[in-house]
TrEMBL record, chain A:
TM spans (from-to): 6-26, 35-55, 75-97, 117-134, 140-159, 171-192, 225-243, 264-285, 291-310, 317-338, 344-363, 395-416, 436-459, 486-509, 529-553, 655-675
Principal location: membrane
One Pfam short name: Proton_antipo_N
Subcellular location(s) of the protein: Endomembrane system; Membrane
Organism of origin: Sphingobacterium paludis
Superkingdom of source: Bacteria
Protein name: NADH dehydrogenase subunit L
Domain NADH-Ubiquinone oxidoreductase (complex I) chain 5 N-terminal residues, every copy: 67-116
Residue span, NADH:quinone oxidoreductase/Mrp antiporter transmembrane domain: 134-430
UniProtKB/TrEMBL annotation, chain B:
Similarity remark: Belongs to the complex I subunit 4L family.
Protein name from the UniProt record: NADH-quinone oxidoreductase subunit K
Enzyme Commission designation: 7.1.1.-
Gene name per UniProt: nuoK
One GO location term (cellular component): NADH dehydrogenase complex
Reactions catalysed according to its record: a quinone + NADH + 5 H(+)(in) = a quinol + NAD(+) + 4 H(+)(out)
Role played: NDH-1 shuttles electrons from NADH, via FMN and iron-sulfur (Fe-S) centers, to quinones in the respiratory chain. The immediate electron acceptor for the enzyme in this species is believed to be ubiquinone. Couples the redox reaction to proton translocation (for every two electrons transferred, four hydrogen ions are translocated across the cytoplasmic membrane), and thus conserves the redox energy in a proton gradient.
Keywords from the UniProt entry: Cell membrane, Membrane, NAD, Quinone, Translocase, Transmembrane, Transmembrane helix, Transport
Annotated TM spans: 7-23, 29-49, 61-85
Biological classification of the source: Bacteria, Pseudomonadati, Bacteroidota, Sphingobacteriia, Sphingobacteriales
Length: 676, 101
């Protein structure tokens, strides 16, 4: 086909949007989801065939038109196709496609199905638009759209109070991040005067390392305070979107949405937007910001892994696992090797999507059991599962592949990407020395914890004996494999979670086409021993963790009491929600009470006082005006009047009167003359 | 022996009577009479003082002249009074006060 990459990528974005519009118009008549499915399929084909392969092997290209002009500054809107953007776009398409297929079976019979497809298309449109935006402002708009679509999808079952609370929470916390992003945009614009990604970060952009060569452009001091602030503001934006500690609290709650949504949005695409943003604006960051990013990523990875250990809800474990893996990606960006972050993003997208879809299949079947047996139990609770591998072996196989990939076992994609981050982090620490080794050490520990909690999930779900076995009819069990419409996407993703998709070398991450394609230079030397020992250590750690999990959960040698306070602590997510509740919600309420009282008594009081004083002054002024000013005027007026009145009597028209006066005057004159 | 003082006293009395008539009478004709009295008092003074004239009979001639003038003035005054009466239907000067403010 002779479609230029620009047109093709535009089509990729527009197709889901037209699907959204069509479904919005059709309303309840479009419940099949064919429109959305067709749009995303076409998008995937176009994205892969006409955009990705052309740009990845060829030159970056762009197209922009002037959007609006303020003064002499004009804002452009357009499409930027470089390796990063086309890769991200393809990834979103490839993940969205199986999820769409899966949703057809998973969401079948839901009342609001027409809304579901509409929202899903809207989300795909926003996410795809986000990936290829050329302007940060344009990117911000899509960023907000992604947040909004996610809000709609989390609250899809809006009759459930928990869902409503969850989408509100997600929206509010994302607002914090959006604010950071916006501040970052504003700071950057104030410093540089453009928001165009090419002008900022392109080959001869403001932040390019080759700026010194192009001395026609002004040289920017990356270490200036404002640039640091801008970097931190962008980080805040990414932290909320990519669920980094302490803004991660929305993601576990967002599991209230349909599982297919969780897998698409909260594992593979939306949360990746934050990482993608950081990779896009990577040249902006200086050492300080990068160190903060690394720190945040490590804390996130560690805390989320701990919290994942104590969860019983199958989706919440996966949610915390997502947060933890996003922390890994953050570290990847923070240590300057954002290619490893993108690699992990890609592999994670596949296996986490797979894990969620499998979890969805399990929940789907558990719900069937619940409906058939008329029992009341939580179909998402691990404690109600067990032994499911006998009933749904294919799902078990897929879940196992996903879990192994997440644990980072060799031959899986997760092995490549996780090792790439840990090894690079180790090299980074080795070049910095000293306390920097905390980072790779923490990452290794988190990897082991990851292996343990995902092992726990697999063992508790698929091994042991099923809790409600006696309730299932022996001949025609209500617990069985999910329909093929759900199985095929899972099998596809399971295949993608293995190493061949990423490179022919199963053990060397440097050989993956993603790392080679992005070709990021880091300024610290490679440690060859690390490339050998760290993957080996991680694998051994993972095996040990799985063994311990096997002993604890399958062999029933669980050493801890259920009400162990540490488990409780992890289960309640470190009481972070309670802390937020006390600190921010109650604090805000208290503050507003205080402000109300302040407003009521101090501000209103002042106003009333001023009013009262003004009134008194006005009364006084009235009195002065009436009695003194008017009095003076009236006095002079009346004086003049009375004088005039006196003189008036003389001129009475009486001829004889006049004569009398004349005579008097003459007599007075004579008297004067005599006396003188 | 009648001296000049007697003449002057009589003249002053007549002048005062005339002045009174002018100021106090409620009839324009009586005012005109008062004016005539005052003129005659002055003429009497002319005649009385003519005794000391350097030129003979100067004062008496002036008196005759003044009498003629007074007669003319009375004619004019009566004419005015007649016109006033025609206009106001009264000759009481206190009723004719249109000169006031």
């Amino acid at each position: 086909m002779n479609i230029s990459p620009i047109v093709a990528s535009l089509l990729v974005v527009v197709l889901p949007f037209s699907a959204f519009v069509i479904q919005a118009i059709l309303g309840r008549r479009s419940v099949s989801g064919n429109v959305a499915l067709m749009a995303i399929s076409l998008s995937s084909i176009l994205s892969a065939g006409c955009v990705f392969f052309v740009v990845w092997t060829g030159e970056a290209t762009l197209e922009r038109i002037t959007w609006f002009t303020i003064g002499t500054k004009s804002f452009s809107v357009g499409i930027l196709l470089n390796k990063l953007t086309v890769f991200m776009q393809l990834l979103v398409c490839i993940i969205a496609l199986p999820v769409h297929l899966y949703s057809r079976a998973y969401m079948k019979g839901d009342d609001g199905l027409h809304r579901y497809w509409m929202y899903l298309s809207l989300f795909c449109f926003a996410m795809l638009g986000l990936t290829i935006s050329i302007n940060l402002l344009q990117l911000y708009i899509f960023w907000e759209l992604v947040g909004f679509a996610s809000y709609l999808l989390i609250g899809f079952w809006f009759t459930r109070d928990a869902a409503v609370q969850a989408n509100k929470k997600a929206f509010l916390i994302n607002r914090i991040g959006d604010l950071g992003f916006l501040i970052g945009i504003a700071l950057l614009y104030a410093q540089v005067g453009t928001l165009d990604l090419v002008e900022l970060f392109g080959k001869s952009g403001f932040f390019s390392t080759e700026t010194a060569v192009h001395d026609s452009l002004q040289l920017l001091d990356k270490n200036s305070a404002w640039i640091t602030c801008a970097g931190l503001a962008f980080l805040l934006g990414a932290m909320a979107k990519s669920a980094q500690f302490p803004l991660h609290v929305w993601l576990p709650d967002a599991m209230e949405g349909p599982t297919s949504v969780s897998s698409l949005i909260h594992a593979a695409t939306m949360v990746a937007a934050g990482i993608f943003l950081l990779c896009t604006v990577f040249p902006l960051f200086n050492e300080t910001v990068l160190l903060v990013i690394t720190g945040i990523g490590t804390i996130t990875a560690f805390s989320a892994a701990i919290f994942a250990l104590g969860q019983y809800d199958i989706k919440k474990i996966l949610a915390f696992s997502t947060i933890s893996q996003l922390g890994f990606m953050m570290v990847g960006v923070g240590i300057g090797a954002w290619d490893t972050a993108m690699l992990h993003l890609a592999t994670h997208a596949f296996f986490k999507c797979l894990l969620f879809l499998c979890a969805g299949a399990v929940i789907h079947e558990m719900s069937h059991v619940k409906a058939h047996t008329n029992l009341t139990f939580d179909p998402q609770d691990l404690r109600n599962m067990g032994g499911l591998r006998h009933y749904m072996p294919k799902t078990f196989l897929c879940m196992l592949i996903g879990a192994l990939a997440l644990s980072g076992f060799p031959l899986t994609a997760g092995y490549l990407s996780k090792d790439s981050i840990v090894v690079t982090a180790f090299e980074w620490a080795a070049s910095h020395g000293g306390s920097y080794f905390i980072i790779p050490a923490a990452l290794i520990l988190v990897s082991v914890l990851t292996a343990f909690y995902i092992g726990r999930l697999v063992f508790k779900t698929f091994f042991g004996s099923f809790s409600f076995r006696e309730h299932i009819a022996a001949g025609k069990p209500s617990l069985h494999e999910p329909p093929s419409m759900m199985l095929w996407p899972m099998l596809f993703l399971a295949a993608c979670s293995l190493f061949p998709l990423f490179g022919v070398q199963p053990l060397a991450y440097q050989q993956t086409w993603i790392i080679r394609g992005f070709h990021v230079e880091v300024d610290y030397p490679a440690q060859h021993a690390a490339h050998l020992f760290i993957p080996l250590g991680l694998t051994i750690g993972a095996i040990v963790a799985w063994t311990v999990g096997w002993q604890w959960y399958v062999k029933q040698k669980y050493p801890l009491r259920v009400d162990n306070s540490w488990v409780q602590w992890a289960n309640r997510q470190g009481y972070l929600n309670e802390l937020n509740d006390t600190l921010f919600v109650k604090g805000t309420l208290k503050l507003s009470d205080l402000l109300y009282a302040f407003d009521r008594y101090v501000v209103d009081g002042l106003t009333k006082l001023v009013t009262w004083v003004t009134q008194r002054i006005a009364v006084f002024a009235y009195w002065v005006d009436k009695h003194i000013v008017d009095g003076l005027v009236n006095l002079s007026a009346n004086t003049t009047y009375y004088i005039g009145h006196l003189a008036r009597h003389v001129q009475n028209g009486q001829l004889q009167g006049y004569m009398g006066f004349a005579l008097t005057a003459v007599i007075l004159g004579i008297l004067y003359l005599i006396i003188k | 022996m009648i001296s000049i003082t007697h003449f002057l006293v009589v003249s002053a009395i007549i002048f005062c009577i005339g002045l009174y008539a002018v100021l106090a009478k409620r009839n324009a004709i009586m005012i005109l009479v008062g004016i005539e009295l005052m003129i005659n008092a002055a003429i009497l003074n002319f005649v009385a003082f003519s005794r000391y004239d350097k030129i003979n009979y100067g004062g008496q001639v002036f008196a005759l002249f003044a009498i003629v003038l007074a007669a003319a003035a009375v004619a004019v005054g009566l004419a005015i009074i007649l016109n006033v009466y025609k206009y106001y239907k009264t000759i009481d000067p206190s009723n004719i006060n249109e000169l006031r403010d």
